[in-house]
Prior knowledge:
The chain has about 350 residues and is an alpha+beta fold. About 20% of the residues lie in helices and about 30% in strands. The protein has a single domain (about 10-360), classed as Deoxyribonuclease I, Chain A, CATH 3.60.10.10. The strands form three sheets. Strands 1, 2, 3, 4, 5, 6, 15 and 16 form an eight-stranded mixed sheet that branches. A hairpin with a 2-residue loop joins strand 10 (about 215-220) and strand 11. Helix 4 packs across helix 5 and helix 6 runs parallel beside helix 7. The model is unreliable at about 1-30 (pLDDT under 50).
Amino acid sequence: MRLRTGLRLGLAALVAVALPLAGSGAAQAKDKRELTVMTQNLYLGSSLDPALQAADGPSFVAAVAQIYGTMLYTDFPTRATAIAETIANEQPDLVGLEEVSNWIAQATNGEATPPSYDFLQILQQALVAKGLNFEVASVSHNADIGPAPLVSAAFGCGVPDPAPDCVVTLQDRDVILVNADTPGLRWSNPQNGNYTAQQTFQPPVGDPVSFDRGWASIDGVLDGKKFHYANTHLEVEGSPAVQEAQAREFLAGPARGAGAVIATGDFNSAADGTSTTSYADLTKSWFSDSWSVNPDQAGLTCCQNSTLTNTVSAFTSRIDLVLTHGAVRPLSSKVVGNAPFQAAPPFWASDHAGVVAKVRLH
């Protein structure tokens, strides 16, 4: 997803020769100090509420089957193609992704065939198919839930008695992608980590499970101007104390860096102040919100229903943000992915819209 301000062709050619590229590709005329930044929650494909609400072992097994089936129904390979199309249209230089799920389904009896879905691999393939060249710059490894018994008759995964025929694991990640075809853009120092404050849940059987929310960051240089870029996904508003503690940790560490600072993510805190204090804490003394360039627009980004079958948008809050600090100024900011992309379900590329902001480094 890239928006560009034109320069004279001669100057663009000179820049292409003088500055090394992060990857191969033809240089395009652009303002040398402008970056286009995107955040997109990919949606893991299902609500986890059935498992979180399960009261006993059998209901937990049924919940896992429901969650896995919904994930298949919401069809990430097709959604990834739509997201890749948006990226191709907008041509961002930096992309922060949340809920970059890895569903690992395994047979234990040698006969069952449950499919696995690595969202990062699937999206990368969709980007390559669009002729795009994005590098995986930094990855935060978050929740690792499972293996849990999986019942799915369609794939030969029978009732787990006495042992399951299949098991499934959900791994969550946040990812930073860098456009390797952006002239003059270099990046280094990939970092990632998990917050000290974490929300956990206790399944009916086994040990407590942590959601292990985290962050990823890189340092970059564009035309000699340094910047620090971080991406995160904070805990949901239903756990306000944990989320607000994570926001404070983010501000104290990952949000600090040399030169300009840019942060993206699903912060799960409504910008209108109706849920938690995290948005206010982030923007009170450190960050500015790129959406401030649109004072009369709501910019809603969350959330469609869990099966992506609602035909009319259900967005009610703005929680997906591009934030800036220091020697960087937002020029524009817009919501993307906020319309159905096809005539049959899943209608939406994600349960979240994305946000694309153009910023200028000083």
